Amino acid sequence: MTTRTIRVTVRGAFDGLDADQRADLLARAAQHDLAFAAFTAEGSLTYDIATRPFFTFRFARTAETEQDIPAAVRDAEAAAAAYLDQHGYGFKNLTSQAVDLSQVPLGKRGRKEAARHD
User: Fold this and answer.
1) First to last CA, the chain
2) pTM of the model
3) Which domains does the chain possess?
4) Interval 55-75: pLDDT, tens
């Protein structure tokens, strides 16, 4: 059985931030810029608090079967909530989307590479 790579995107909105929390997010905004976004095991947080209150976490997870994907999504949501709680940031409206990379069609370069290995 092969391990599937799952990309989970967790989105939400900051909620009830006080002036200090907002200032902290603004001070660390360069670290969480979209230019540094990546799907990682620990999660990659991006936001632009100066323009809107929304954030996105990107997580890389694995699953053995398709039935394991909902657990991977729950794990990513829990990790995002834990990060926000740990930093004292209020949040609301968490939503998630998962993409099983084994189901993504290969582009021209991917098909060429796959044919080379067959």
Assistant:
1) 19
2) 0.84
3) 4-117 (3.30.70)
4) 999 999 999 988 999 999 999
